[in-house]
Specification:
Chain lengths: 297, 338, 368
């Protein structure tokens, strides 16, 4: 049984409705959660950078091994070497934050440039760029990374550069398609006919108004992927090495003690990975739905 | 005698259809002569109608004349200057005088920008004005197109069809157009709104001395608006002249059929029964021999009745536009009696 | 007096705009009739509700809340039924001051009931053709096959061979040249006019009693439009089928319709014989009809090069429906005496001449 009712006060334009009625609550929830995670990560990163940690993450405390969470002074407990987990988690962010930003920046910047060149100018340029991006896209990312690791060294920055490069095709094709869509609707032609400068058309109309959502979403999802990549590789031993903390290698080293009943040293970083990546993904998803008006007004 | 604002000489625009990537690089492809050797001129304060069925190339003429695509051959003179081969940067200052009203009501209206911003952008394209000046000009434009000032804060999605069309017109006026190519300006609108737009365009012409190239398949509206009319068929102009003569005393069989199909709808007089089901299109068989003499021959009743005369299908003997009195031109081997 | 083939009584179809938290009163109390062997034309612009009314008849409305009231009595020689039977069981209306302000509807329940009713009528008794012929034909099946399918489903010709012959017969009837050749053609290879003819053939092949044509000529080139109109006239005279013809093109309606209904803002504002409604005498017409006729370019106006009589303002959006007459804001025939009534009271359809009804306060005194 569905109920519909007309409010006696008729609201005017859609653009004046309060936020809660404009968008689906689910999306607002996603975005809210995502933003809080991002804020938490950002703040923690800054603290980590400024060394504003409760304890020294490397400080070994042999008499306080494996303290459970909420023990005296150690909110998140200690690991198998007595090191404070909270401080280690905060330091762990260092492992993926800047490298992740690097990967995302490479994908976005190069992707946007290629996307615009191929979408706006078309012709032979488009053909060539499409071939190249298809080529890059067809490479399995993990294999490429392992090759780089084997050829050089397990440096997280090298890894992220590879990730950035393999992420270019997604961005450039998305932008080129968007431009094609706009062209079909005579959008670009109308702007040219009016006499707008190319620069203005590209930056203002195409990128800012139409691709803004796309880029934000690629950025958030890209960051989520970067975190996943870094933690996975560190877990496998190819990324950040002990004793420098990374969420991935924390899970790995804690794994030995898992079967002995000491869940916490592994679980804590695992939960951190889970909630953080979830946060980035939901942020991207929620923003996508809101900005692209997917869930019908 | 007002001066000529647009002169088009032997304009052609060919499109190539590529079948594979390799063909694209080797430039081996099929050529569609969408616009083939068109010549006409338009004076200040004058409206020229361009009619024909869909696919005849009239939209392409409009876009080529405004240099939104490069012509394959021929020349276009706007306000005395040859714009055929100008670069984009050379064209920019000229573009403000020649504008286009798109068939699609949403073209040019960024759905994320309010009307106010859209107009402000158009006003500021060619010169920087202060905020106050922009506001004054916006209000003046809205007055000219009969829109309420309250519409300034609306988004395009909140406007009705007629309102969108009028914002489009305001946008084009904001830049300071002297000549407007109107591509199917009334097609997507309701009948009562069409009347509003037609009246508006006529009033603007009287007030501002505008010239229009009025492209439409709605013959009655074209008749109302245009001083002269050109009829296109598969890329060529088959008849051109003053509106009254072309509509009332058509000489080309195609023109006659076009106009009589109107009358047929309204009254029950069955005029010459013609089988027009085989609609002309750039299909396979038309393509193979694009200049197979007269392009209208397969559908022409005169061709039928005269027992398939040789001249009509002779590939060397394409009918050319000939003057039949008072600027009225026809391209036909056997034009109808005046 | 023979029973009319289709009798729509106070049909109401509403939608809901979540962004504005209000109803879209697409069809707000429409009543009309289609008699046996009669063609009724429905004229209206966008937002008038004419297409939605047609879809409501066919039971093709899926958005919520959809059809919420009224009855559609269908009476052919084979079937007699109210197409909206049982609607009251699924819908509860909350009216205040004569206006529907709330609707509770068991949508899935009604959907099942409606399907049960319409399943055997759709395509067989009542056929519909739509505006964009290419969009309604399956692009992957040849035209002939589609018609054959319809024949086998809805008529007595069940064998493939018989059905095929019938399909070819109907292709001939709609004047498609070389029907046997065209049988195997795909919609993509056919022009717009031919696709429309094929769709008409498909609709007629099941030998329905009622044909609903929703904008059959819109979107086609001018020359083809007149040919389709010719065809429909031939069919009307030849098969004796009843037609509900919906169009915004007055010239098409005037050629084909026996009776005409003019719709504006979700309601019928004028209803009568074609000559009465579309004839030249402006004094006994609804102001909207008169204004509509005046805004179409005609021979006279073209010769005079005078301005068209445009109607001020914009077409009513059926969300912000005013309390009084829907045409009040744009009407140019309001006299001081009736102004108050026009602004506050919604007039009813009143008969001002035999068979001619108008919904306007101007004619209150003239009502018989």
């Amino acid at each position: 049984m569905k109920k519909y009712s007309q409010t006696t006060a008729q609201i005017g334009d859609f653009s004046q409705l309060p936020l809660s009625q404009k968008y689906a609550w689910v999306d607002l929830l996603y975005v809210g959660y995502g933003l809080s995670i991002v804020a938490l990560v950002l703040v923690s990163y800054v603290f980590g950078m400024l060394d504003l940690l409760p304890y020294d993450p490397q400080q070994i405390n042999m008499d306080l091994l494996m303290s459970p969470p909420f023990s005296e002074g150690y909110i998140l407990g200690t690991d198998f070497m007595g090191r404070d987990i909270r401080s280690r988690l905060i330091m762990g962010i260092q492992a993926y934050f800047l490298p992740g930003m690097l990967a995302v920046s490479i994908s976005l910047v190069v992707g946007v440039v290629l996307g615009i060149l191929s979408g706006y100018y078309g012709g032979r340029l488009e053909t060539v760029i499409t071939y190249i991006t298809n080529l890059v896209d067809s490479f399995p990312r993990l294999v490429l990374i392992l090759l780089v690791v084997a050829a050089f060294k397990p440096d997280i920055y090298y890894i992220m550069i590879v990730m950035g490069i393999t992420g270019i095709p997604a961005v450039s094709t998305a932008i080129a398609n968007k431009i094609r869509f706009l062209a079909q609707k005579n959008f670009i032609e109308a702007a040219i006919a009016l006499g707008l400068r190319t620069r203005v058309i590209i930056f203002k109309h195409i990128l800012w108004y139409n691709c803004r959502a796309l880029l934000i979403i690629q950025a958030t999802l890209g960051m989520g992927e970067a975190i996943l990549l870094e933690t996975s590789l560190s877990y496998l031993g190819f990324g950040v090495q002990e004793p420098v903390p990374s969420w991935g290698n924390m899970v790995q080293s804690g794994a030995n003690y898992f079967l002995q009943g000491n869940f916490w040293p592994s679980t804590a970083p695992a939960l951190a990975i889970l909630f953080t990546i979830l946060g980035f993904n939901l942020l991207g998803d929620g923003l996508n739905n809101i900005l692209e008006d997917r869930r019908g007004k | 005698m007002s001066k000529t604002i647009l002169e088009v000489i032997q304009l052609s625009k060919h499109f190539s259809r590529h079948h594979s990537l390799l063909q694209k690089f080797k430039r081996r492809s099929e050529v569609i002569p969408a616009v083939d050797n068109i010549s006409f001129y338009l004076r200040e304060n004058e409206t020229m109608g361009l009619v024909g069925e869909s696919g005849c190339g009239k939209t392409t003429v409009g876009r080529t004349v405004l240099r939104l695509t490069k012509p394959t051959s021929g020349s276009v003179f706007f306000d005395g200057q040859e714009i055929t081969y100008m670069s984009d940067s050379e064209l920019r200052p000229i573009r403000k005088d020649m504008q286009l009203i798109f068939q699609d009501l949403d073209a040019g209206l960024n759905p994320k920008m309010r009307v106010q911003s859209i107009l402000q952008e158009a006003i500021s394209v060619y010169g920087h004005l202060s905020d106050a000046e922009v506001r004054v000009k916006s209000h003046m434009l809205l007055d000219q197109v009969n829109l309420k000032y309250s519409k300034l804060s609306s988004y395009p999605s909140e406007l009705s069809g007629g309102e969108k069309r009028r914002v489009g017109i305001a946008r084009v006026l904001a830049v300071g157009a002297k000549m407007i190519v109107a591509d199917e300006p009334t097609s997507a609108l309701d009948v009562s709104i069409q009347a509003q737009v037609v009246n508006l365009l006529r009033d603007l012409q009287k007030q501002l001395g505008l010239s229009y190239l009025f492209i439409s398949h709605d013959l009655q509206v074209v008749e109302m608006m245009s001083h002269k009319v050109a009829v296109m068929y598969l890329g060529k102009i088959v008849e051109m002249g003053l509106t009254e003569r072309v509509s009332g005393a058509a000489r080309h069989p195609y023109t006659y059929i076009l106009w009589s199909s109107l009358v047929e709808k309204q009254s029950r007089e069955a005029l010459q029964p013609v089988n027009l089901d085989r609609r002309a299109s750039w299909g396979v068989f038309d393509f193979e021999r694009p200049t197979r003499g007269c392009r209208f021959a397969p559908r022409c009743p005169v061709y039928e009745r005269r027992g398939h005369p040789q001249e009509c299908t002779d590939p060397e003997n394409e009918p050319k536009l000939r003057d039949v009195g008072e600027g009225h031109q026809v391209a036909c081997h056997f034009p109808l009696e005046g | 007096m023979t029973q009319p083939l289709l009798k729509i009584d106070n049909l109401r179809t509403y939608f809901y705009a979540r962004s504005k938290q209000s109803f879209v009163r697409a069809v707000d109390g429409v009543s009309l009739e289609v008699g046996q062997r009669e063609t009724v034309g429905v004229v209206g612009e966008s937002g008038s509700g004419k297409s939605i009314a047609a879809m409501s008849i066919m039971g093709l409305i899926s958005a919520g809340p959809g059809v919420i009231g009224g009855s559609i009595q269908y009476a052919s020689s084979r079937v007699q039924k109210n197409l909206l039977e049982g609607l009251q069981d699924f819908v509860k209306l909350d009216e205040r001051d004569g206006r529907v302000m709330g609707v509770s509807k068991n949508e899935s329940g009604w959907q099942k009931a409606s399907e049960h009713t319409m399943k055997n009528l759709r395509g067989k008794e009542i056929s519909m053709i739509f505006q964009n012929p290419r969009a309604s034909l399956n692009p992957y099946i040849s035209v002939g096959e589609q018609i054959t399918e319809a024949v086998r489903l809805h008529t007595v010709y069940k064998s493939r061979k018989e059905a095929r012959e019938r399909a070819i017969y109907w292709l001939e009837q709609v004047r498609i040249d070389s029907p046997r050749l065209r049988f195997n053609a795909y919609p993509a290879a056919m022009s717009g006019g031919m696709c429309q003819r094929a769709m008409i053939a498909m609709a007629l092949s099941s030998e329905p009693s009622l044909l609903i044509a929703d904008e059959p000529t819109t979107g086609l080139d001018a020359t083809i439009q007149s040919k389709i109109v010719d065809l429909m006239e031939e069919i009307k005279n030849g098969t004796g089928i009843s037609t509900l013809l919906i169009s915004h093109d007055i010239s098409v309606i005037s050629r084909l319709a026996d009776r005409v209904a003019v719709m504006y803002g979700g309601a019928v504002v004028e209803y009568g014989f074609a000559k009465q409604v579309l004839g030249a005498d402006a004094s006994i017409k609804h102001p909207y009809t008169a204004a509509l006729l005046a805004s179409v370019p005609s021979e006279q106006k073209i010769r005079d090069k005078s301005n068209l009589h445009a109607i001020d303002g914009d077409v009513l959006d059926t969300i912000n429906v005013p309390p009084g007459c829907r045409f009040f804001a744009r009407c140019n025939q309001i006299t001081p005496e009736i102004r108050e009534r026009c602004a506050t009271l919604h007039p009813d359809l009143k008969e001002i001449a035999p068979g001619h009804q108008v919904r306007c306060w101007l004619f209150e005194s003239k009502a018989t």
